[in-house]
């Protein structure tokens, strides 16, 4: 388990500029359970990378405590801290592979550093490459591989030392959507088959939706919201979270979409969350109201369906009003 207690990081101000001297990470406390996939999401500059680098002490906190499996990294001696850090692998946005080494050489490198013989390192590296499906490419050089393959090498390198935790720094941000999906599938296997705890940072809520079980939302160095992914998606509390959730769910038409819908649908528009208890077709029939589906955004979050359907309602004004009252009350729908 990883625990941060009231962790703050202030970088020395390089020059007098607005925001210089403000904490990059500001009093953050959070806990990552063993075996979980924990996402940290936030806009550029929110402090995500710094937070990730504090977990393995690539950055030292200005104040606060970082605990890994109950061990306070700040209180450990250099040797012991290095051992704990070796149990934490890291994956980078730009892969950070050596161009001059083969794929196998890249994956074997940290193993050699940790003291394994050349033969042992090559064997373990080969196993890691098999896990990520790239053993056939062992003798190639990074530039002969696609971006997605390079990231899989990066993941194999991080896994070769058999870490209990993997920190992923925007691991899919340099990749196209299809390759992103492949890398996310691989990370899911790393968690599911190897039991590795994953902490990943991203600015894409879609990555959190498809991979994570817990999420923390960061803004201006602080964690503004944290919780189970399904809970945060279904009830975002902070405005920053709300924006991120909407970007992944597309359940509520944005202002431009709404303007287009209004032009096409002269009736009353109402957005109804999916999964409510009401038998909608019966409700519409009872009140003699006609409907058309004008817009829908529905997706799976942690194996449960979330989303919203926007209906256009047509009928006598009183009937439409009665339907709207029922929907906005019990079904938590929003009239547009
Ligand atoms: N080594 C450093 N020295 C000085 N300031 C830094 C350093 N690293 C980060 N910062 C500052 O700390 C703040 C948070 O940066 P950080 O990279 O952690 O954010 P981020 O959310 O990861 O953003 P991005 O997605 O753009 O990487 C920013 O204002 C950044 O300029």
TrEMBL record:
Residues 2-245 form the ABC transporter domain. It comes from the Bacteria. It holds the Pfam family NIL. CDD domains: ABC_MetN_methionine_transporter (cd03258). Keywords: Amino-acid transport, ATP-binding, Cell membrane, Membrane, Nucleotide-binding, Translocase, Transport. The keyword ATP-binding applies. GO terms for molecular function: ATP binding. This is Methionine ABC transporter ATP-binding protein. It comes from Streptomyces ehimensis. The lineage of its organism: Bacteria, Bacillati, Actinomycetota, Actinomycetes, Kitasatosporales.
């Amino acid at each position: 388990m990883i625990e941060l207690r009231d962790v703050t990081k202030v970088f020395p101000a390089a020059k007098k500029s607005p925001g210089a001297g403000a904490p990059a990470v500001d009093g953050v406390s959070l806990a990552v359970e063993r075996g979980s996939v924990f996402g940290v999401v936030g806009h550029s500059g929110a402090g995500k990378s710094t937070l990730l680098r504090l977990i393995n002490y690539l950055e030292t906190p200005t104040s606060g405590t970082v605990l890994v499996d109950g061990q306070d990294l700040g209180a450990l001696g250099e040797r012991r801290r290095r051992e704990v850090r070796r149990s934490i692998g890291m994956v980078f946005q730009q892969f950070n592979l050596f161009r001059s080494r083969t794929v196998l050489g890249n994956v074997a490198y940290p193993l050699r550093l940790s003291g394994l013989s050349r033969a042992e390192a090559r064997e373990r590296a080969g196993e890691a490459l098999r896990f990520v499906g790239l053993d056939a490419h062992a003798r190639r050089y990074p530039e002969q591989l696609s971006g997605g393959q390079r990231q899989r090498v990066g993941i194999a390198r991080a896994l070769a030392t058999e870490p209990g935790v993997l920190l992923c720094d925007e691991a899919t941000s340099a990749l196209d959507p299809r390759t992103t999906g492949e890398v996310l599938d691989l990370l899911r296997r790393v968690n599911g088959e190897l039991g590795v705890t994953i902490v990943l940072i991203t600015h894409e809520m879609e990555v959190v939706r498809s991979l994570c079980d817990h999420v923390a939302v960061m803004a201006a160095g602080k964690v503004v919201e944290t919780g189970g992914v399904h809970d945060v998606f279904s009830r975002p509390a902070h405005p920053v979270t709300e924006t991120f959730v909407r970007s992944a769910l597309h359940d509520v038409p944005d202002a431009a979409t709404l303007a287009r819908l209004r032009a096409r649908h002269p009736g009353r528009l109402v957005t109804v969350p999916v999964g409510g208890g009401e038998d909608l077709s019966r409700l519409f029939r009872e009140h003699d109201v006609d409907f058309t589906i004008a817009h829908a955004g529905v997706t799976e979050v942690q194996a449960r369906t979330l989303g919203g359907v926007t209906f256009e309602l047509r009928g006598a004004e009183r009937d439409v009003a009665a339907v709207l009252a029922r929907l906005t009350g019990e079904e938590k729908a929003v009239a547009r």
